[in-house]
Recover the amino acids of this structure.
């Protein structure tokens, strides 16, 4: 079942729970003059996500299709969305555009963004943050909406389970549990820990986000700066060198 929840003004969380994985897959739709969809979901979810978007606006009017990095739940249906929305363009890092997206994913050339560049969708401003290997992949990047102070944070703050759309409670224990479990099986090192991890998370904390919109699990509403600093500490404990 796919649900739609408004987690900030004009920002909607579209969520599908997959019982077999005990995991929610979340997309985020910004309703503005130039609508933005962040994450497409994998191909098996295209119809469900499209129909959820249609409850909020005409899917053919989507202008921007954003994502952090090359992965099926991030951008797996980019071609389908670009065929459905004829004026749409992918939004990703310049690295992603150059090494992957324009070659075999995008129907039209992507908007490759450099660190600090701003995308305006109307009344909302999205600052692009190049975050190599955070959460993972060389081309990784995130979008920070400066008006409402929402960080579209991809796999950061990953939580398992069919959880609530938003929470103001600490989600770090849920995140820790996922990483500890994953480290014991084939999904080990899902989140790489490198020399970039801690400084990147502290850089994000300085943005002082009020909402952390994660791909998997509840969006956190509260002191995003502290949550990101706590995440950096937890990553070091669970994933850092022993």
């Amino acid at each position: 079942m796919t649900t739609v929840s408004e987690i900030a003004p004009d920002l909607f969380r579209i969520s599908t729970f997959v019982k077999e994985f005990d995991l929610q897959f979340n997309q985020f739709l910004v309703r503005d003059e130039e609508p933005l969809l962040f994450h497409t979901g994998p191909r098996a979810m295209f119809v469900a996500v499209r129909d959820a978007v249609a409850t909020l606006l005409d899917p053919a009017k989507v202008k921007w299709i954003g994502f952090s990095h090359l992965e099926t739940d991030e951008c797996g249906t980019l071609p389908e969305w670009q065929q459905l929305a004829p004026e749409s363009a992918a939004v990703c890092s310049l690295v992603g555009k150059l090494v992957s997206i324009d070659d075999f994913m995008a129907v039209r050339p992507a908007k490759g963004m450099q660190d600090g560049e701003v995308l305006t969708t109307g009344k909302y401003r999205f600052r692009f943050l190049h975050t190599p290997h955070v959460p993972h992949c060389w081309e990784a990047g995130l979008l920070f909406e400066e008006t409402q102070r929402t960080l579209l944070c991809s796999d950061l703050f990953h939580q398992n389970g069919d959880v609530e759309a938003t929470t103001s409670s600490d989600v770090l224990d849920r995140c820790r549990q996922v990483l500890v479990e994953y480290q014991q099986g084939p999904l080990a090192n899902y989140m790489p820990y490198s020399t970039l991890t801690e400084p990147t998370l502290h850089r994000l904390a300085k943005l002082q986000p009020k909402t952390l919109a994660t791909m998997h699990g509840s969006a956190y509403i509260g002191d995003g700066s502290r949550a990101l600093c706590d995440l950096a500490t937890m990553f070091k404990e669970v994933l850092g060198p022993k």
